[in-house]
Amino acid sequence: MMRLGARRFGVCGMLVAGAALWGAQADAAISLAVALKNYYAEYEIVQYCAQRAQLTADDVAAAGTAMSKIEKYYFGRDESLDKAHLIKQAIADKNDSFKILERSGETGFRPYCQMSLNELLRKANEVGPGDDGQ
Questions:
Q1: In 3D, which of 42, 77, 71, 81 has the Cα closest to residue 130?
Q2: How does pLDDT run across 103-132, given as a tens digit for each residue?
Q3: What is the DSSP letter of 11?
Q4: Of 33, 20, 15, whose CA–CA distance to 83 is shortest?
């Protein structure tokens, strides 16, 4: 009798574990997409800031290099991420962020710009070395 109960639990347990694993994989894909979208938004902010003389062309180049490393990392973890869709969302997020800052009466965006640049550089260092001759 106990053996029959163990078999039932084993099958049910395997079904529950399989469903949990599938759910965890879906959650991980969503989390990766959200994280990558946020880094795209940071990059959009850096570009916007450079257009308004808050950051330099060198800052944009450094952010571009960092973004390449970040993309390589995220697409290496999930090739199914939709880059075009994430960039579109990131641009909308960037626009919303600057609207909020403008409404708040902020005149200098430099600290906000620098924070976005620093976040990209930090993440690029976190995910590892890039393709600089290696």
A1: 71
A2: 887 667 788 889 999 999 999 999 977 554
A3: H
A4: 33
